[in-house]
Design brief:
The protein is mainly alpha-helical. The chain has helices at residues 8-35, 48-59, 118-121, 125-133, 184-195, 212-218, 232-239, 241-244, 262-265, 270-278, 298-308, 321-330, and strands at residues 151-154, 165-166, 179-182. It has a 3-stranded antiparallel sheet. Helix 2 (48-59) packs across helix 5 (184-195) and helix 4 packs across helix 5 (184-195).
């Protein structure tokens, strides 16, 4: 029997052997396995800007708190349309450097929410930038650290034409007369976050996992197609509340309120429909709103609008799916 107290050579060789076995099993074999997979057909290659954002994501330690893996359990359905598969992580053939391949950022804990599909959940650059500058500006309970070093505080007269000015509420500024400008690293990081969109499985594929709909059905929740009714409140909370807040009051100086809004309460819903479908960047004192035409169906837009037009004291006529379709078709 080995006596590690006196036989230091045996201790060293044993420790090295354990290290070698773990390295092969944890790093080398998975790396070779990953090379055998191909990206899904709808998985785009990272652009140079997004790839540099991946560097920033790793460098700033974001991977320590955020996972990018949707597990095959019902509670993870909020993070993606389906459980993750190995092909999801072959999203770039570029290497981080000469020694390291492109990282598969699975993460190990969820101190922060999973980011697998954050490019769909939070596609707006304005929200992402404000969230990075000070997370408490958009979520009072957030424990995420701020990243002010990714931004520059400048005088209004020093803002250049190509600068991206972040709409920051005055209470989060040391000097309200200053402007907050996003650095190149901040824009790269946001571009990377916006690129995180779970690609769809190819048609007629046979995945080696149980779809979320089957998990829900097995748990007694019925199939996903059991009800065609749309929950406007749930859609609002998923798509709109991060900016406009659950109470409809928005974020002063960043995102406008919906409670008491003339646009929301207008009997003619056309302007509101266009804002949701096409985005908006003409409201002084607030950041831009992204377009949702490619993310929401006509029925979903109508459901969200009806919730907003009859909540927080708002009173406005019902919007029908046909109303949204008419406005959408007018832009084709």
């Amino acid at each position: 029997m080995l006596d590690f107290n006196t036989n230091h050579k045996a201790l060293l060789l044993t420790a090295f052997g354990v290290f070698a076995v773990l390295s092969i099993g944890v790093a080398i074999i998975p790396a070779f396995q990953l090379d055998s997979y191909q990206p899904l057909p709808d998985q785009p290659e990272l652009t140079d800007t997004e790839f540099e954002g991946l560097h920033v994501f790793i460098g700033e330690g974001c991977v320590a708190c955020h996972t990018q893996q949707v597990r095959n359990i019902e509670m993870d359905a909020m993070w993606g349309d389906r459980p993750s598969i190995p092909e999801d992580y072959v999203y770039s053939k570029k290497r981080l450097d000469i020694w390291r391949q492109s990282a598969s950022l699975l993460g190990s804990e969820r101190t922060g929410p999973d980011l697998t599909n954050v490019g769909v959940r939070q596609p707006g650059a304005a929200w992402q930038l404000l969230h990075l500058y000070n997370p408490r500006a958009v979520s009072e309970e957030s424990i995420m650290p701020s990243f002010p070093w990714l931004f520059e505080e400048v005088d209004s007269t020093s803002v250049r034409e190509d600068d991206v000015v972040v709409a920051v509420p005055s209470q989060f500024l040391d000097n309200p007369s200053k402007k907050i400008v996003a650095s190149e690293e901040a824009m790269q990081l946001v571009a990377y976050l916006q690129s995180l969109k779970q690609p769809k499985m190819p048609e007629n594929s046979e995945p080696e996992f149980i779809p979320f709909s089957k998990i829900k059905e097995a748990a007694g929740g019925g199939s996903a197609s059991a009800s065609k009714g749309l929950d406007g409140e749930k859609l609002f909370m998923n798509k709109c509340s991060a900016c406009h807040q659950a109470n409809g009051k928005g974020v002063p100086g960043a995102f406008p309120p919906l409670a008491g809004s003339e646009t929301v309460n207008n009997e003619d819903p056309e302007k509101m429909i266009r804002i949701i479908l096409e985005g908006y960047n003409e409201m002084e004192g607030y950041g831009p709103m992204q377009a949702f035409a490619d993310q929401l169906t006509d029925a979903e837009v109508a459901a969200i609008m009806n919730y907003e037009r009859n909540s927080w004291g708002n009173e406005a006529p019902e919007v029908k799916e046909e109303d949204v379709k008419k406005v959408r078709d007018s832009k084709l």
